[in-house]
């Protein structure tokens, strides 16, 4: 495993396991399969509707809490100072844990950004209380981050954004890095939308004797992004983890970056 150090010194595993759209009935096998494959970083969210099942799966696995890195997020409907604290307590209860490693604002409130700023104050309170080891945001633009900077006692340590070879987010990623914010990329292979059939990626994969998915995941890590692919197939879960025995060349990284179309693949 490779790690990225957050601005407060906390180390985050660069490869995690995503839990979005995993049905509750499938959670036990998915979590155990990921743990068996070597994953220790899990990206969760209240809105995914499966945190209770995930919490039970961790308990049943017997793995020590200190060996896990757990992220969750406060959903839009729970934004605001008091409601965020309440939502956090619910997530802790559902996950059967007494702290989180990382807590994020899932989305900025475009219509009432003051509500989002109040939410950030709640995250700072949780951080001060030691209930979460690091705090951050998701889907925030440079302008929105600057508004948080202007009022924050503690700056965001992470910005989680859509990122894949067809949406490389170069400018936002540089802004984050310049402000000591670690970049996380969700949908790292774009839900497979054409990316895994891309000629350039497959040519690079052949050179390394790797799959297209492994090359894309390696590209993220080689460009400094923390990622968390998801799969319900045990073979794919193991395949996604098998990316720490090679690196891409500078030319290969540039070739994949050149595929950028600024294209959303989530909507």
Automatic annotation (TrEMBL):
Active-site residues annotated for this sequence: 48 (proton donor)
This protein's record includes keyword Transferase: no
InterPro entries recorded: AKR, Aldo/ket_reductase_CS, NAD(P)_OxRdtase_dom_sf, NADP_OxRdtase_dom
Signal peptide boundaries: none
Pfam families, per database record: Aldo_ket_red (PF00248)
MF annotations from Gene Ontology: oxidoreductase activity, acting on the CH-OH group of donors, NAD or NADP as acceptor
Residue ranges annotated for the NADP-dependent oxidoreductase domain, each copy included: 15-259
Site (Lowers pKa of active site Tyr) location in chain: 73
Keywords for the protein's UniProt record, in alphabetical order: NADP, Oxidoreductase
Keyword Oxidoreductase carried by entry: yes
Organism whose genome encodes this protein: Companilactobacillus suantsaicola
Chain positions recorded as substrate binding sites: 106
Superkingdom, taxonomy of origin: Bacteria
Similarity remark: Belongs to the aldo/keto reductase family.
Gene3D superfamilies, per the entry: NADP-dependent oxidoreductase domain (3.20.20.100)
Protein name (Swiss-Prot/TrEMBL): Aldo/keto reductase
